[in-house]
Amino acid sequence: MMDASINVSGRQLDDEKIRVLMTSTSYPANLEDWRGLFIRHLADALGRRDDLRVSLWAPPGDVHASVARVATPAEDEWFSSLIREGGIAHLLRKRRIRGLGRSFALIRNLRNAMLRVECDVYHLNWLQSALALPRNSRPALVTVLGTDMHLLRLPLMRAIVRTRLRGRKVVICPNAEWMTPELERSFGDCARIQAVPFGIDPRWYSLRRSLDRSAPARWLVVSRLTRDKIGPLFEWCAPMFADGSRELHLFGPMQESISVPAWVHYHGPATPDQLHDWFQEARGLITLSRHSEGRPQVMLEGMAAGLPIVALRTPAHENILRHTVTGWLVETQAELQSALDTLDNPQENARIGDAARWHIEAEVGTWDDCARRYTTLYKQLLPAAAT
Predict the structure, then answer these.
(1) pTM for the predicted model, two decimal places
(2) Rounded distance, CA 140 to CA 379, Å?
(3) Model pLDDT for residues 252-278, shown as the tens digit of each residue
(4) CATH superfamily of domain region 202-363
């Protein structure tokens, strides 16, 4: 239970709940929608806590019974039109002027919501959301993904974000430790930097694979289809799958115009239920992504399910996998070939998969564990009662 000594904005909390305004620019319409699904899981976990009262400002979608959606009808329509256009990141890539206009509108709408909704602490998902912080002293927790780090490379962006953080208690929470040094250099004097991993749905921990050794080895790739996310996948994998002894199954939305080779089994976006079934029969999951990201959620889910992961050696992947212990890191096509050959061995495949599951269960846990970690930080952000 919450410490009765906590006082917020002059009101004694005692056994009252901490009022959290959580914001996100991505959110799934339902549990079958891939967009921002992890935000739904996080919001649900926070809503299950009996020491929080959670308000959510995000695109329209289903919410936990204890979570209050606070976007206005006009904001909901604005979100819906933005989603129809592909989102701000897509617009900035394809229609820069339109994307910039949408970005400024987002900051304005988000600031209005933060001024409108009564709360004790802001929980802002994504570093760019800090640009909308109003000029008050309300504490803020800001989550950071790997893609947010690109924001810091824009001219004057560090200085602008710092102006919004000043005058309040702030904790910046990357979802992976590899981002901590740069965030410390940029904001360590005006915010606390604390890595907080996201959680995993318990269903993945309970999955047990049943492999048909007489069938072709099925390897999975679960990724948005962009050039950076796909990386050298098609070029490197072609000779390893050409004879039909292995099958490569690709899942994810086509976000850039990419030609998928005929030997690849492309299924389009997949729901968690569909992936759950595929995980049961797969030899492992491959990612050769060069895209900047924190801790790719699908990799964590695969590890929780005991699925061996073969990944391109990048800071994000090195942060998750211990080479040849909880996964396999590769830098060349030859190393990828060696990884697949090794993991064709049932005993080696099971060894890596079991070690991955144990590691993720111990280090990451569930979404309820994640909500507990964030709640601890909320309480630390709140001022202690005057004695």
Answers:
(1) 0.87
(2) 11
(3) 999 888 999 999 999 999 999 999 999
(4) Glycogen Phosphorylase B; (3.40.50.2000)
